[in-house]
Amino acid sequence: GQNIDQPTEMTATEGAIVQINCTYQTSGFNGLFWYQQHAGEAPTFLSYNVLDGLEEKGRFSSFLSRSKGYSYLLLKELQMKDSASYLCAVRVSSGNTPLVFGKGTRLSVIA
Amino acid sequence: DAGVTQSPTHLIKTRGQQVTLRCSPKSGHDTVSWYQQALGQGPQFIFQYYEEEERQRGNFPDRFSGHQFPNYSSELNVNALLLGDSALYLCASSLAAGYTFGSGTRLTVV
Question: How far is the C-alpha of B59 from the C-alpha of B106, rounded, in Å?
Answer without folding.
Answer: 20
